[in-house]
Amino acid sequence: MEHGFVIAHAWLIPALPLVSFALVGLFIRPLSARWAGIVATSSIGLAAALAYTLAWEYWTLFPAGQHAESLVPWSMEWLRYKEGLVVNIGVLVDPISIVLMVVVTTVSGLVHLYSIGYMHGETGYGRYFTYLNLFTFSMLGLVVAPNIVQMYVCWELVGVSSFLLIGFYYDRPSAVAASKKAFIVTRFADLGFMVGVLVLGYWGYGLFETVAPALATEPGALPLQPFDFRYLNSPEFLAAFGSIPAFFGLSLLSVAMLLVYTGAAGKSAMFPLHIWLPDAMEGPTPVSALIHAATMVVAGVYLTARLFPAFAASEDALLAVAYIGGFTSLFAAVIALTQDDIKRVLAFSTLSQLGYMMMALGVSQMAESLGYTASMFHLFTHAFFKALLFLGAGAVIHAVHTNDIWQMGGLARKMPITHLTFLVATLAISGIWPFAGFFSKDEILAAALHGHFTVLFYVALFVAGLTAFYMFRIYFVTFWGAHRAHGAEHAHEAPLVMTLPLMILGVLSAVAGFVPFGQYVHMGEHVEHGGIDFAVALPATLAALAGIGLSAFFYATASERAAKAARFFGRAYRVVKQKFYVDELYLFVTKQIIFHLIARPIAWFDRHVVDGGVNLSGWSIRTLGSESSRLQTGQVQTYGLWFAGGSVVLLFLIWAVHV
Amino acid sequence: MGLVSWLIAVPFLTMLGVVATPANRSHWIRWISAVGCGIQLALTALLTWRYWIVASADFEAMNTATLTQLHFVERVPWFESLGIQYFVGVDGISVAMVILTSIIIFTGVLASWYVDIRTKEFFSLLLLLVTGVFGVFLSFDLFLFFMFYELAVLPMYLLIGVWGTGPKEYSAMKLTLMLLAGSAFVLVGFFALYHASGLHTFDLQQLAQADYPRALQRWVFPMIFVGFGVIGALYPLHTWSPDGHSSAPTAVSMLHAGVLMKLGGYGALRIAVYLLPEGAKMWGLFFMALATINILYGSFGAIMQRDLKYFTAYSSVSHCGFVLFGVAALNIMAFKGAVLQMFSHGIMTGLFFGLIGMVYGRTHTRIIPEMGGLGKVMPWLATSFYIAGLASLGLPGLSGFVAETHVFLGGFFGNEWASPWATGTLTLIATMSIVVTAVYVLRGLALVFQGPITNEHFEHLDDAKLPERLSTGLLLATLFFVGLMPWFFIQLTESSLMPLLNRLHEVPVVASLH
């Protein structure tokens, strides 16, 4: 098949940030920080333009509402483990990878642009853009991965760029601690992913001979490999693999998918692996917008969607995805009600929305894949409004020099553009028509309802109300009322380089919901017809309006009502405010158990027992030597005595043996 | 004299050059060493290129061969009555190891640029040591091999005892005695093979064609494996390593952890597994289990260390465990992983010890809690340290990932002579190290380089100088090269590893003879 130019050269999209990363990191950064920002930003801009053209070419080739093939226009052999177990790196072009490419390049480009203003005058300005480029490359590499190993490789690379950016202010101990925590917690989750890859590799390789010949090879592509998603997702492989039992009544397929899901849950910060994300807010705010809200944290959702047929073949794994997602969305939303740091509220809100996306995947099935579409749709809209919320928060923090919402207040007049765009995003996340969040959230709720997950439906509905409440809480406290602190009085609007991205994202957050998403992204031949489902939209909108109303009651005007409510809940309020003490639990496990019960005894054992054994053998030989050296007295009489005694003993022995 | 002999001769001649230079001309001595090692590096490049051309033809043929194909062979009879000969040559594994050694000694000389106590003796011993190392990797006569092996081990005693720090006499003595005990085991094993083969030769290729009864293999294999295991830091015989590394001067630590510890894995693979396949099948699982302990034990041990060198030494114990794990897992992925890990760990740990030396030269302390915030004043060193650390925790794009995934896949695929449940479980236990490694690497590096500067004297320290940048830069580039373009080393070594594997699958004909 003849592809258009951009489809054939889709590798350029991840390659541009990579080239720019190398150029900026090695050559431009030492020469001119200013140019580092410009080059880094324009490379992403170019990649974004290519991504849009790619989308246009692709959907010209496979018009909306029709079957869409996945293409691998470029691939090469990278790592040959053994004959028949080869990792190719390549570019996979299909609807969800295109959606992600568009999201990543758009948000990343805007964040780069915004950062030129936000990071102005900071030390490490060039380093910052180097890391941002590295992140964007890794994320795009992850998105286009045609096999699970490339996914894992880029997965680790986004992890390390996130680590570098969270710890960007490396002389600040809290940032250093947060970056370590993020890396180690996700690494722990990645252990599951890695073992999952081992299991899939082992059985994929074992079943390859019998299964793969049934799969048609694509013309011009490299031969199919056991790690390829196309193979892992094929019904033939899943049927063969799914019939192998493992333990506890789980099939081996379920075990493998649950392992892979552990990795996904770590990256997408599902409970109980969520603890790194709120701390990750130590990074510069644009980084939080890009990595910890819009793109990297959705990698877990993307991985689950990428392997959706495999998940769908395992009922147990899919149920876990649904309920962990649903629980996380509720858990995080409850915590968000009580936080005072504007970025932390947004972080918990991100957790909650990620829970939505995971839940949507969990409630859907191969035949009834509304949830799959809804999840990707929400990923798409959420990226815009959440990035906007973070960048807006960044503009506010930039102006008032604090993260604490109670130090802000009355900023609506001082920062009109920030205020207006923030309001748009708040309405979008609250799910108010016609803003973007309304449509995607509506679909998720509909998917839960139609999948007969009634409990999850009501949980999600309740979370929708909570979301509206806590989002309007920070909106009212930040932008309305009187200035509560000195910083807020002297705040002024951010420069154009920062407000322009806000305005663009504002427009996107307002209109992205009107994209007929189901026409473009669907599982197999099954096309979802968009449109508003009033059985869902009505209660959801009512829940949101109730949340807003309640929020206005407590926070729109300065009053004692909120404090009274907090006192009313007493201990429960404190537990929530302390984030249910999950961090303390982790700290206990790492400090008390791993450090004090494992590592310290091992270090002691090594020095005193193992090495002690070595020293003991040295000591005993020396002692033996020095003791026996006493025999050498120099007295002929003593030698004679020993000689005579020895002869007698020897003679006796000879006699004894012979008799 | 052929290319391979020159590779042994150049370091030796360089050493003679150093010996001939007056002791007070320390600058000349450095330059002679650097130029000699530079020539060695160039010769290595030539060897690699020529090997690639010559050997490409038999890459395919090796898939079914049971004898490894040597190139550039030189053979001269030596003690003919005993069947001892000067027999050198290369196959893919040797080439990989020679590349490693050349890089490490070159950067090691650069890293020792500022050694000013007994410079002449220092460099001549260093070069003598490395002559031995090259000899080991290039010789295919067991006697010659053993001679070079001892040549590589013994100068270490003086290098640590004279130029070391801390309890150096104790460490040097312990290291030397333990390694010599290991070589005693190896020597007994060699004599057993010499005797049992009945061929009256130490020629590795001929010995490989002899049939050794299973009963013999049952005790000779563990003997040779453990003997090499001592220098490869096999648990529980690793304890020379933390003390030895921490007392040794920078270049010696680099060479020792970077190259000498690889002699263990190399010998275990090249001699124990190659000559005694039946023994390998009998003992594979046992040594896999020991290596698994190595991997986890070393990484947990590293968490609690306060001295940067102890920290790296324990990390090496863990990483060398991957080498032995791969060797003992007995399949092609694991073998490749073992060789890749030898190379990768060699470069990585050379970089670590080199950097520790550079940092120590500035701060005059290696105690982790006494440092802090150094990244601000020495960004080059900090960045290099972080890259080495990320390589050691297996970050994709750097060499550690390629090696470790080979070893993990190899272990998980297992072999036909051990229970798949056992090999699978051991592999799963071993994979846990990727988390523990992340914990100690990030924790250690954060304490040294991040946070505010804790000591005001550190405010005015300088960053890496030109020779230092050159040596760290070369090592970093190698880490990236292996990580990004793994196919080069895979192609290079795989064809030479296939015969080892094929020997395991051969039907033993021994039973009929005895």
Description:
The complex is a heterodimer of chains A (659) and B (514). Chain A has helices at 5-8, 12-31, 33-61, 95-118, 125-143, 148-166, 173-211, 229-232, 235-242, 252-267, 276-279, 285-294, 299-306, 308-312, 315-336, 342-362, 370-400, 411-414, 416-430, 436-450, 454-479, 486-489, 496-511, 517-520, 534-555, 561-577, 582-629, 636-658; strands spanning 71-82, 85-93. Chain A has 659 residues and is mainly alpha-helical. In chain A, α2 runs antiparallel to α3. Chain A is globular, with a radius of gyration of 31 Å. Chain B is mainly alpha-helical and 514 residues long. Helix content of chain B is 74%, strand content 3%. Chain B contains 22 helices and two strands. In chain B, a hairpin with a 4-residue loop joins β1 (71-79) and β2 (84-90). In chain B, α10 crosses α13 (308-329), α11 (250-275) packs parallel to α21 and α12 packs parallel to α18 (420-431). At the A-B interface, β1, α6, α7 and α27 of A face α7, α10, α12, α14 and α17 of B.
What descriptive keywords fit this protein?
heterodimer; A: 659 residues; mainly alpha; two-stranded antiparallel sheet; 3% strand; globular; B: 514 residues; 2 strands; 74% helix; disordered C terminus
Residue ranges of chain A: pLDDT <50 for 5 or more in a row? none
Count of helical regions of chain A: 28
Kindly name the structural category of chain B.
Answer: mainly alpha
Distance between the termini of chain B: 43 Å
Instruction: Name the overall outline of chain B.
Output: globular
Rounded mean pLDDT score of chain A: 87
Compute the gyration radius of chain A: what is it? Answer: 31 Å
In this structure, how is the largest beta sheet of chain B organized? 2 strands, antiparallel
Average predicted local confidence, pLDDT of chain B: 89
Proportion of residues in helical segments of chain B: over 70%
- Domain count of chain B: 1
Helix content of chain A: over 70%
Shape of chain A: globular
